[in-house]
Please model this.
Amino acid sequence: MNPLVAPEPSAHGGRTALSVNLNKVALLRNTRHLGIPSVTRAALQVLEAGAQGITVHPRPDERHIRAQDVHELADLLKAWPHIEFNIEGNPFHNLMDFVRSVRPHQCTFVPDTVGQFTSDHGWSFPADAERLRPVIAEAKALGVRVSLFMDPVPQAMRAVRELGADRVELYTETYASAHGTPQQDEVLRRFTRTAEAALAVGLGVNAGHDLNRDNLTDFLRAVPGVQEVSIGHALIADALELGYTETVRDYQRCIQRAFA
Model:
C-alpha cells in the first residue's frame, strides 16, 4: 500500500475535508510564458490556510495542469504527509501514467472526452463497468484509493462497489443549477438518496462541480457522509477578490456551519 495515504476525513473531527482544485491557477499561468501565477505557490498558500487536500485534473492537451505540475506538487506534498493528493481524469487517456508514476492518495476516474470543455456527466452502469474493472484493479494494486465520478443514481452504487471502487464523487452541477429555485429540494433528494445508497454498500462519498460559498452548506446538511469536496473554479474566482487565505477559511466556515 502507498505509505503516504492520507487518513480518512474522520480525522478532521468528522467534518468534510476541503480539497482545492488548482486547474484554474494553471489556466491563467498558461496564457503567458512567465510562470505566474505559480501552481505550487498556490498549493502552499491554500494548505497553510487549512485546506486538507489538493486536486488536479491534467487533461491530455495540457491546457491547464501540465505533467510537470503534477510531479512538482507531488514533491511539495512530501513535506505535508497528512494532506491528500487527488489526481482526476479519464483512465483511458493520460491519467494512469500519473497514477503509476506519482501514486497519489486518490485517483478519481472521470469519463471526459479528450477535448471536453469541463466534466459534465458521470460513468454509466452497466455500460462502463467491464472496461473500468482492470484500471480500478491496477490503481488499487498500486495502493491508490479509487473514486468514480458519478451522477446521483442510487441504483448504480452497488454495482460501483462490486467493481472494486472505494468511493464515488457525486457530480453536483445539477444541484448547483437548482440551488435557490423551486426545484432545489427535489434535486437535492436525489443526492441524499444516492449518498445513502453508497454508504449502505460501503462506499465513501465525495462531491464536486460548481459547489461554492452559497450552496455548499445546504448540500452538506442534506447529504450524509460526504468525506471530501473538491472545489476549484468558484474557489479560485473567490480568491481573486479575497486572496487564497481568506477564501479557504471562508469555505471551511461553510463546512463548519453544515456540521454545527
Notes: The chain has one domain: 9-259. The two ends are 35 Å apart (CA to CA).
